[in-house]
Specification:
Helix content is 70%, strand content 6%. By secondary structure, the protein is mostly helical. The chain has a domain of 60 residues. Strand 1 and strand 2 form a beta hairpin. Helix 1 runs antiparallel to helix 2. The protein starts with a helix and ends in a 13-residue tail after the last strand.
Length: 103
Amino acid sequence: MDLETYWIRRALIAAALMTALFLGGAALTRAEDDCQKRVNKADHNLHEAIEHHGWQSSQADHWRHELAEARNYCWDHGRRWWDADANRWRTDRDWDDHDHDRH
């Protein structure tokens, strides 16, 4: 193998690795966006249900469940979860499933 072929192969390998890293990062970003949207939607709908139907309504209970599911989904898929109230990612599984049960 001559020197030119060697460097062409190295460049192709480097390009393939960069592409894989880029696509992997894009998939991670999309998963984070999906996770954040799920939590934000459930949190918003929970607040709306509480406002319109009361703290102990079946609608509020439904959205509390959806919020817990969204947080668990985030944790299972990225080992972090979106805190909609603090507007930030958290890396400890320290959410309170009952944090929206009270005033």
